[in-house]
Write a structure and sequence with these properties.
Layout (H helix, E strand, L loop, with lengths): L1 H37 L5 E4 L4 E8 L2 E5 L5 E5 L3 E3 L8 H26 L4
Antiparallel strand pairs: 1-2, 1-5, 2-3, 3-4
Membrane topology: Single-pass membrane protein
Pfam families: YajC
Keywords: Cell membrane, Membrane, Protein transport, Translocation, Transmembrane, Transmembrane helix, Transport
Length: 120
């Protein structure tokens, strides 16, 4: 009686492991398909090493990526982890935030001058 129970448990565990591995394999294939589809010039990508760059050219298994400064590097397709925008902002967004800081500094100086003037 107990040997039947052990065999049923082993078969059940084997089936669960098989279903889980099958699902993981399908998810990996879907991710690979989406990455292949997104490797077009102009798209931002992230490599497995954490490098962000824009796709310049795809030639077989080699992808040419450009840095924000314009330097080009060669990468294997397998090194591309995801198609995603970089977490840092663009240079124009940084310049806009700098003008906001200057405006805030001017406002503070104006309020300090108003407080320093004697009351008549």
């Amino acid at each position: 009686m107990s040997s039947y129970f052990i065999w049923i448990m082993l078969i059940g565990m084997f089936l669960m492991m098989w279903f889980v591995s099958r699902r993981q394999r399908a998810m990996q294939e879907e991710q690979k398909r989406r990455t292949e589809k997104g490797l077009v010039p102009g798209n931002w990508v992230r490599t497995i090493g954490g490098f962000y760059g824009t796709v310049v050219e795809v030639d077989g298994d080699v992808v040419t990526l450009a840095t924000p400064l314009g330097d080009e590097t060669l990468w294997s397709k397998r090194a591309i982890a995801a198609i995603e925008e970089p977490p840092f902002g663009s240079a124009s967004a940084h310049e806009e935030s700098g003008s906001d800081v200057e405006q805030a500094d001017n406002d503070i100086q104006d309020s300090e001058q108003d407080a320093a003037e004697p009351q008549a």
